[in-house]
C-alpha cells in the first residue's frame, strides 16, 4: 500500500499535476513562490515551473483576483491564492459583482476559467480575523462554483476539476485539515464538481457535512455506533453545484437529518440545504431537522472559548442522540 | 508627469476625416439613445458619452485590432469605437434579443468580445486590475497585445486604482490607463474630494508610471499620446497613465440636467466640442463643406437605420434569463 | 388625516429627526450633500445641519465605512451612505471583519455605534451590478444588526432606533419602495429593532416577508382572499435581531409557511429562518415549507427577464395556492 | 519627501534613559512571549516586534495621553508604549481571564481602550481609514487630539492605504501615518513587489501629504519626526506620513527562523539594534554602567513578575464566548 499523503501536500500535488498537463495554468499570490506559501501548500511549484508561471504578488487582494479575472478572460487558467479566506472580504467585489456575473451579463460572450484557492476555517486559535469558515460568503452569490474537499485524494481530484473548469471556482482548503493524512490520489485522479459521496453508510440518521465537519461527523458516527445508533455521513464536497439529490435520497432512507457546518448558524449554507429538504423531503421526515453550526459570535482567541463556538464531536454526538431518540 | 502642450502634429485630411466620422457616429448614436430613453423605449438607466468622443476614437485608432479594451458604465463610445454597430448597441438598450449582450447586460455593460472589447464595468475602478490581468496574460502569451482601461476621474480615489497601478508597474505590464477626466463624479466636482489637482496624472509617480495630461477633446492629441504609450508597452517598458481632460454634454445619467455645473463652465466646454475642433482643423486642411456634409449625411442615415433596426428587432426572450450562467450554457446550480 | 409620506422622504426625515436631537450624529457619503443623494434621500440635510455634519466623500467605499468606524469608536454616531448596496462588496472587509468583531475581540472595551445606509434591491432594470438584494451578504456575519423597513413610518421609526443603537446597524432602503407612500410617522416615532409585526392577520398560510416582499405578499394576500385563502403576512423588519418567535407563533396558528425573499435562493436569509421552523416548529407543520426567492442567476437587465428571476405577486400567489391545497 | 539626515538633536540623559527603559521593557516582554510560545503556554500565533522598539517608544513619547493609536497584529510594542502592562499583554497571549481582551482577542488584537490605544488589526491596511475616522472625529469634536496609525511596508500596496491618505489629505485630518518599514512582508522582500523605493514615503505626494523617511532604530529621530507631525496636525495643517526604517529581530511569526533574509543583512541590522544605539548615546551623555544596570535589573524583574502573574492567573472562562458581542453585553441574535 502506498504511503499516506497529507492534505497539505495534496494541494501542491494537485496544482502541479494540472500545471504539467496545461501550460496555460499560472499561479499568483502572496509568498507562494520562493516561500512555498505560508501554509506550505505551493512548495516546489516555483522550482518546477519557474517564475513565469508562479508569481509572488504584493499585498493587494483586489489586484490578485482582478488580475486573475483579466487573465482568465484572455486565454489563461490562473490559480490565485488568497492566503486566509477571511481576506476574501478584501476582494469581495470581484467574487460578488465581477467574476460570477461576467459571462451572464455579456450574454455568454466571455468565460472566466479561474480558481481562487484559500485557507479556510478555525480551531487553531488564530482569532476573529484569521479563523472564519466563510464558504457561506461566496454561497450568497450565484455564478461561482464552490469546492471544499475533506481528504487528500479529493483535494487532488477536485483541484483537477476546478482548474479544468471553464467556470470560476472558489476552492476552500481547510487549515485544520492540512496535517491530516489519507490515501494518496491515484494518477489522473479527477473528482467531478457537484457529486456528493456517502462517506459512511448508515440507517438511523443522516449527517450532511463539508470539509472539516466530515472527519468530525465520522468520529461522532464511530462513537454513536457504540450505542447502536447508525449514522450515514454524506460528504457534500461542493456547495455549488449542490448535490441535494444525494442528501434527499439519504434522508429518504433515514428520515432524519442533521447538518454539520463550521460557518455561523445565521446565514450558514446549512439553512439552504435544510430548506430544500423541508420542502422536497418533507414527507420522508420523522423528526425535526437540526443544524450544528458555529454559534453567532465572532471567533474568540482562546482555545477553550473557540471550542464553545465551533462544532465539536461532542456537540454532534449529542445532537444525533436527541434526533435518534425523537 | 508631463503636460503635452505641443500642437498635435500634422495628420492628413483623409485619416482625420475618418476619425471625424467615427466621432460623429458616436455623437449621433448617443443622441438617439437619449431620445429613445425619453420616449420610454430605453429602460433602466444610461450614461451618455457625448463630449467624450475624442478620447474613444483617438485612443482606439492608435491600437491594434487585437488589443484589449475595458470601459466603464459610460462606455457606448468605446464599444462603437471598437466596432460595435449602433444597431446592436441601441438594441441592447431597448431590451432586444439582438442586443450586444442579448439584453442581459444593458447600457452599463456593453461588450464586444469578438473585437476584444472586453466589457463595460459598473463598479467604479473594478476593471483596472482586470485590465492589468489581461496585459499580464498578453505578456505571458507573448502576443504583443496591449490592454487599455478607460476610467473616470472619480475612479482615482478608490483602492483598486492604486493596486492596479502598482501591480502593472512592478510587473511591467503592457497596459495603458486612460482617465477621462470630465471634472465631475455624479453631481460632485472631483476637486472637492481629491487631494491633488490632476486626479489621475498626479498619482502616477507613486507607482513609477509615466503620465501625460492631454486635451481629451483633441482627437489627434489623444491618438498621439496613446501611440506613444502603446509603443512603450509593446517594447516591454510597462504601463503608462494618460489623463485626458474632457467634458460631458449630457448630465451624469438618465434625465439629469446637470444643473450643478456653472453655465459659463458649460459654455466654455461647448465651445471646445471635440466635433467642432475637428471640423475646424479639417477646414484648415482644406476639406470643404460638401465633404463634411457627405459624411454627416451618411452618419445620420446609419443611425436612423440603426434606430429602425433596433425598434424592429424582437424583444429578448424571457427564457434567456436562465441561460449562460455557466460555460455549458446552463444555469443549473443543484441536483 | 395627515398627507401620506413617501418612503424616500421618510429616509431624510428619519435622519433629520436624529440629527436634531443628537449633535454627535454626522453623515458621510457620495453626493449626499449639495446633491441631496442620488436617490434624493438626504435632501435638506446639508442646508439644515451644515458642512460639519454632512460630508460629501470621494468614491472610496473603504474610506467611507472605515472612517465611520473610527469616528464611532471615538464618540460620534456616524451615518454612512453606500449608494447602492451592491457596493457593500467594495468595503466588505469592514462589514465582515472589522465592525462586527471590534467589541467582541477587545473583550468589550470598544463600541461601534454607526449606521451604514444603502439602497438595496431590484426591479428597476439597473442590471447585474446595481440591482441586487444583498441583505444575505451581511447576514452571514454575526455582530451586525440588520434593518430593512417596508413602509415610510417604519423607515423613520427604525432609523431612530438604528442611529440611537450602540451597536452597528446596516440599514437597507429598498430602491423599489422609494416612491411608495404610506402613513407618515408620528413625532418621536421609534420602532425597536428586532420586533416583527403581523402586517395582515390570516389563518391558512403564513408568509414571512421583508422590505420589498411585504407589499408583494400583501398584494398576493388580497388576490388569494378572493378564493377564500386567508394569508397571514409577517413583516420581519429586521434580520438581526431576528424575531423568529413571531414567525413560529404564526405558523403555530396556520401550520403552513412560505418565505418570500428577494435575495437569491442559494444563501438567502430564508434558509436560516426555514431551518429554525423546521426544527422548533416541526410539530406544528402540516405542509412542506416553501421559499419564493430570486432564482440563482445574476440579475438580467431587460425587465421581462428580471421579472423571471425576482419574486412577483404571481409567483407568491401560485406558491400559496399549492401550499394551501397540500 | 524629505530624508532627514540631520543628527537627532540633543536630548537630556534623564529622558533618554526613560525611553531606553521603555524600549527595554518591550524587548524583554517580547523575549518572554517567545519563550512562552516555545514552551506551549502561548497558543495560536505571535508576531514579535523586537527590533521595532524605537518606533513605538519614539512616537508614543511625542504624543498626548489622549491621542489615539492604531496598530497591527505586530502590536505588542505599541500596546506597551501606550501603557499596557507586560502582565496583561502576556496574560492575553496565554488565554487568561486577566488578559487585555479577556483572551478573546489574542496576540494580534491587543487593545488598551482606556488609554486610547484603539486596537491591533490583523487585516493588512484596514486600520488606516479607521484611524482617519478617529482623526475626523477629533477634528469635529474640537479636542485637539491626533490619531496615529502604525503599519508595515506591505500595507502600502493595498487599496485602503490610498483611500485613507486621500481622505485624510482632502479633509485635512489630524492623523499621522507611521510606516514601520522592516523591508519584508511575511517572507518576501517588499522591493520585489513594489514599484517605488520607499513604499510609503514615495506614495505620499500622490495625495499631497508631506513625508519623511527616518531612522526607525533611532528613538530620538522618530520622536522628533512625530513631534513635527503632531504639531502640524494640531495646527490644523493635516496629515503627515513618516516612513521609519527598521528591522525585525525574530522571524515574521511563531517559529519562523527568517532564513530568507541574507546573513550579512541580518548582521548589519543587529549592529544597529535600537537598544544598542540608545545605550551608546546614553554613554556619550555620561550615563554610567551602574545607571544602565539598575534600569536593566528593574526591567528584568518587572517582566519576570509579569510572567509569574500571567502564569498564575485564572484561565479565561469559556462562558465569556457568549458575552460582549452587543453593547448590552449579550450575544443574543434572535427570539
Ligand atoms: C464603487 C462604486 N461606488 C460608487 C458608484 C456609483 N457611481 C456610479 S458613476 C459614479 C461617478 C463616477 O465618476 P467618474 O469616475 O468621474 O466617471 P464619470 O461618470 O464622470 O464618467 C458613481 C459615484 C459605483 N458605480 N461604484
Ligand atoms: C489583507 C491581508 N492580506 C494578507 C495578510 C496576511 N499577512 C499578515 S502579515 C503579512 C505581511 C505584512 O507585511 P508588513 O505590512 O510589511 O508588516 P510586517 O509584518 O513586516 O510588520 C501578510 C501578508 C493579511 N493579514 N491581510
Ligand atoms: Mg467624471
Ligand atoms: Mg514589513
Secondary structure blueprint with pairings:
The complex is a heterotetramer, with two copies of chain A (326 residues) and two copies of chain B (335 residues).
Chain A: E1 5-6, H1 7-21, E2 25-29, H2 45-49, E3 54-56, H3 61-72, E4 77-84, H4 92-105, E5 115-120, H5 135-139, E6 145-147, H6 152-164, E7 169-174, E8 181-182, E9 197-200, E10 205-209, H7 213-226, E11 231-235, E12 238-240, H8 244-254, E13 257-264, H9 269-280, E14 290-294, H10 303-309, H11 313-325
Parallel strand pairs in A: 2-3, 2-4, 4-5, 5-7, 6-7, 10-11, 10-13, 13-14
Antiparallel strand pairs in A: 1-8, 6-12, 9-11
Helix pairs in contact in A: 1-6, 3-4, 7-11, 8-9
Chain B: E1 2-3, H1 13-38, H2 53-60, E2 68-72, H3 76-81, H4 86-93, E3 117-121, H5 127-141, E4 147-152, H6 159-170, E5 175-181, H7 201-204, E6 211-215, H8 219-234, E7 240-245, H9 263-271, H10 274-284, H11 289-312
Parallel strand pairs in B: 1-6, 2-3, 2-4, 4-5, 5-7, 6-7
Write a structural description.
- The complex is a heterotetramer, with two copies of chain A (326 residues) and two copies of chain B (335 residues).
- Chain A has eleven helices and 14 strands.
- In chain A, helix 7 (213-226) packs across helix 11 and helix 8 crosses helix 9.
- Chain A has helices spanning 7-21, 45-49, 61-72, 92-105, 135-139, 152-164, 213-226, 244-254, 269-280, 303-309, 313-325; strands at 5-6, 25-29, 54-56, 77-84, 115-120, 145-147, 169-174, 181-182, 197-200, 205-209, 231-235, 238-240, 257-264, 290-294.
- Chain A starts with a strand and ends with a helix.
- Chain A is globular.
- Chain A has 326 residues and is α/β, with parallel strands linked by helices.
- Chain B is an alpha/beta fold and 335 residues long.
- Chain B is 41% helix and 11% strand.
- A seven-stranded parallel sheet of chain B has the order 1-6-7-5-4-2-3, with helices on both faces.
- In chain B, helix 1 (13-38) packs antiparallel against helix 10, helix 4 (86-93) crosses helix 11 (289-312) and helix 5 runs parallel beside helix 6.
- The radius of gyration of chain B is 20 Å and the shape is globular.
- Classes of the chains: A alpha/beta (326), B alpha/beta (335).
- The complex binds thiamine diphosphate (2 copies) and magnesium ion (2 copies).
Amino acid at each position: 500500500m502506498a504511503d499516506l499523503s497529507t492534505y497539505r501536500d495534496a494541494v501542491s500535488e494537485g496544482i502541479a499535476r494540472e500545471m504539467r498537463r496545461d501550460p496555460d495554468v499560472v499561479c499568483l499570490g502572496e509568498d507562494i513562490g520562493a516561500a512555498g506559501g505560508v501554509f506550505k501548500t505551493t512548495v516546489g511549484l516555483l522550482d518546477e515551473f519557474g517564475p513565469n508561471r508562479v508569481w509572488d504578488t504584493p499585498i493587494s487582494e483586489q489586484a490578485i483576483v482582478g488580475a486573475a479575472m483579466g487573465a482568465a478572460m484572455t486565454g489563461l487558467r490562473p490559480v490565485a491564492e488568497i492566503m486566509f479566506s477571511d481576506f476574501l472580504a478584501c476582494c469581495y467585489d470581484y467574487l460578488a459583482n465581477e467574476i460570477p456575473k461576467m459571462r451572464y451579463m455579456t450574454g455568454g460572450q466571455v468565460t472566466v476559467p479561474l480558481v481562487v484557492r484559500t485557507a479556510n476555517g478555525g480551531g487553531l486559535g488564530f482569532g476573529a480575523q484569521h479563523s472564519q469558515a466563510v464558504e457561506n460568503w461566496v454561497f450568497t452569490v450565484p455564478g461561482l462554483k464552490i469546492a471544499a474537499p475533506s481528504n487528500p485524494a479529493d483535494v487532488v481530484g477536485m483541484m483537477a476539476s476546478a482548474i479544468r473548469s471553464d467556470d470560476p471556482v472558489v476552492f476552500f482548503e481547510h487549515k485544520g485539515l492540512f496535517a491530516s493524512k489519507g490515501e494518496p490520489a491515484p494518477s489522473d485522479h479527477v473528482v467531478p464538481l457537484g457529486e456528493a459521496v456517502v462517506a459512511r453508510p448508515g440507517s438511523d440518521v443522516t449527517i450532511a457535512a463539508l470539509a472539516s465537519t466530515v472527519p468530525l461527523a465520522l468520529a461522532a458516527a464511530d462513537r454513536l455506533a457504540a450505542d447502536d445508533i447508525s449514522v450515514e455521513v454524506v460528504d457534500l464536497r461542493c456547495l455549488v453545484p449542490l448535490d441535494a439529490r444525494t442528501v434527499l435520497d439519504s434522508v429518504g432512507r433515514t428520515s432524519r437529518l442533521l447538518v454539520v457546518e463550521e460557518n455561523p448558524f445565521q446565514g450558514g449554507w446549512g439553512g439552504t440545504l435544510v430548506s430544500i429538504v423541508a420542502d422536497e423531503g418533507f414527507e420522508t421526515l420523522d423528526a425535526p431537522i437540526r443544524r450544528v453550526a458555529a454559534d453567532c459570535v465572532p471567533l474568540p482567541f482562546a482555545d477553550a472559548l473557540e471550542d464553545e463556538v465551533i462544532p465539536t464531536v461532542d456537540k454532534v454526538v449529542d445532537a444525533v442522540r436527541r434526533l435518534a431518540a425523537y | 508627469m508631463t503636460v503635452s502642450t505641443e500642437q498635435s502634429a500634422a495628420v492628413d485630411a483623409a485619416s482625420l476625416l475618418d476619425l471625424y466620422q467615427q466621432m460623429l457616429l458616436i455623437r449621433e448614436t448617443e443622441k438617439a439613445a437619449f431620445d429613445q430613453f425619453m420616449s420610454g423605449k430605453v429602460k433602466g438607466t444610461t450614461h451618455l458619452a457625448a463630449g467624450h468622443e475624442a478620447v474613444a476614437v483617438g485612443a482606439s485608432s492608435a491600437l491594434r485590432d487585437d488589443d484589449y479594451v475595458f470601459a466603464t458604465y459610460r462606455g457606448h463610445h468605446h464599444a462603437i469605437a471598437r466596432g460595435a454597430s449602433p444597431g446592436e448597441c441601441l438594441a441592447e438598450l431597448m431590451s432586444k434579443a439582438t442586443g450586444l449582450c442579448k439584453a442581459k447586460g444593458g447600457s452599463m455593460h456593453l461588450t464586444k468580445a469578438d473585437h476584444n472589447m472586453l466589457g463595460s464595468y459598473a463598479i467604479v475602478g473594478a476593471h483596472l486590475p482586470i485590465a492589468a490581468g489581461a496585459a499580464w496574460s498578453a505578456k505571458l502569451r507573448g502576443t504583443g497585445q496591449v490592454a487599455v482601461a478607460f476610467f473616470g476621474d472619480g475612479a482615482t480615489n478608490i483602492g483598486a486604482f492604486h493596486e492596479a497601478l502598482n501591480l502593472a508597474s512592478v510587473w511591467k505590464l503592457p497596459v495603458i490607463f486612460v482617465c477621462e477626466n470630465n471634472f465631475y463624479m455624479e453631481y460632485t466636482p472631483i476637486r472637492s474630494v481629491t487631494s491633488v489637482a490632476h486626479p489621475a496624472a498626479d498619482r502616477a509617480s507613486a507607482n513609477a508610471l509615466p503620465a501625460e495630461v492631454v486635451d481629451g477633446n483633441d482627437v489627434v492629441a489623444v491618438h498621439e499620446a496613446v501611440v506613444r504609450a502603446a509603443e512603450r508597452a509593446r517594447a516591454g517598458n510597462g504601463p503608462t497613465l494618460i489623463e485626458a481632460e474632457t467634458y460631458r454634454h449630457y448630465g451624469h445619467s438618465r434625465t439629469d440636467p446637470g444643473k450643478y455645473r456653472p453655465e459659463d463652465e458649460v459654455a466654455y466646454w461647448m465651445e471646445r466640442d471635440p466635433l467642432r475642433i475637428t471640423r475646424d482643423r479639417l477646414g484648415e486642411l482644406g476639406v470643404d463643406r460638401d465633404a463634411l456634409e457627405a459624411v454627416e449625411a451618411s452618419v445620420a442615415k446609419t443611425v436612423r437605420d440603426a434606430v429602425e433596426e433596433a425598434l424592429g428587432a424582437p424583444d429578448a426572450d424571457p427564457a434567456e434569463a436562465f441561460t449562460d450562467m455557466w460555460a455549458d450554457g446552463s444555469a443549473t446550480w443543484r441536483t
